[in-house]
# Entry
Amino acid sequence: MFNLPPTEQYSKVPEAEKKGGGFLKKIFYSLNSTVGPAKGHKRLLMSVKRIYGWEWNTLIPCHGDTIEGNGKEIFGKIFDWHINGKK
# Structure
């Protein structure tokens, strides 16, 4: 989950040193914010259920090692609450 913009994270950085934005940054922030309807987060959760319904067994994370053979099982364990509504 994201909670953008990361104002606290960059609170001690002088304004002159902060990078500019741009159109893509604005879109990314709007989809990953908890402000307003939080549609980006809600759509992510819908995607998690859809992805879990597919047939696959290898999980390639953005960071970390590829999980081969039981990737879907690990994905299901991590996202169980979102897939099945269990805590």
In short: Residues 1-36 form one domain.
